[in-house]
Amino acid sequence: MNKCDQFRELIEAYALRALDVEERVAFEAHLATGCKDCAKAVEEARWLVSQLGYLAPDAGPAEMLKGRLMQTVRSEARMTKSSLKPKTSIHFWMWAAVAALVLLTLYSAWDARRLQRDMQTANQRASAILQQRQELKAQLQLAKREAQILMDPNSKKIMLPPKDALMPRLEAMWHPELGLCVMGQKVPMPANKRVFQLWLIPKTTGSKPMPMQTLWPDADGKMVRVVENTPEPMWNTKAIAITEEPEGGSPQPTSEPMWLGGVS
Amino acid sequence: MSPDAMLIQQLLQRDVDAFERLYDRHSRIVYALVLRIVRQGLTAEEVVQEVFLQLWRNAARYDTRRGPFAPWLMALARNRALDHLRLKNERQRRREDQTEELPPVIDVPQFEQALDEKRRAERVRALMGSLNPQQKKAIELAYFEGLSHTEIAETLKEPLGTVKSWIRNGLLRLKEGLRAAT
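^ Those are the sequences you sent over. The predicted structure of the assembly is below.
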């Protein structure tokens, strides 16, 4: 027995919508399986059922019904057309839109410039903070290095007595690998536009003093200078000297040493 | 393309004249059908107005390639009228899941094209008039009252199987009669 056979006698009643619920549900489940034969038969049965409308006794609607209906339809059609047709006020809206666009453009340009300035300021701040951080980092490294030099037993202590008895005595600690650290307390500021400069005096006969970093005390008179890479090794250095030189330092001493201490 | 199909095409362009012509062509049979179902003139006019406004607002949902317009419109009108009837009789809950917003596809047999509306109406009435009165009554209860097999059996006090056979055989006889008329 074909699967459709059990439903065949339901097709006309289904199109008529006369099936009871159970039969209707079962038949619709069958249609849902995609049965093309039954679907086609249902479509034809619907046409057949529609023909039953001709059994209704002939009667016509009142003319007023058509009037009301056409009035509604014409009104809706006008609304549809008016919604599609460009409105007379479009020029105003167009100019308003253009004006709004111009204002928006100007505001955008001003805002972009403001943002650019803000970005520049932020970048400058960031650079300053970065630089400050790098400086602090460098200072921290120097402080660490200074501590290492001071604490390491291999460091050699070098006394730097002043030439002027009124000046304080300086000290230096020199580690063969970590570097040289010069320090002192209550050091007076050098003369205006002058700085102190560190020199290494080699042992080699006839050699000129090796110029090193410039240095100056802080507001409390404390002066500390760490030199990580000395131009001469400790074993080849006869003495350490500090002179007063013009700002930026000098390639060779221009004054007598204010502090001088022998290394070995 | 049939006249109805051309008018539908124009209707899709919001052509009011096309709508008016469709109304003039079909409002009489639609009104007669709806009146037969709801049995009250004012309600019938209300339903007819609803049907044609739905056509005006949702013409795009009728696919001219899938079948003729008149059966589709009549199915739409019948559904709307039965909805009103169900509301009135408080029976809508039983069958509201069967009600569709718009009728489904109606496939027309080849022979339908050759039969004009007036002749078809006469032929349908003649064929149905030739049926056993109880058989005709059963079909009319289903079509115009929206009753199910069981409800018709209870109304006519006939066995359920008999009612089922009456309806199916009556519709098949109508189909053969319309086919023979062409």
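Chain B touches chain A through 65 residues (CB under 8 Å). Residues 1-108 of chain B form a domain with the Rna Polymerase Sigma Factor; Chain: A fold (CATH 1.10.1740.10).

Shout if you want it in another format.
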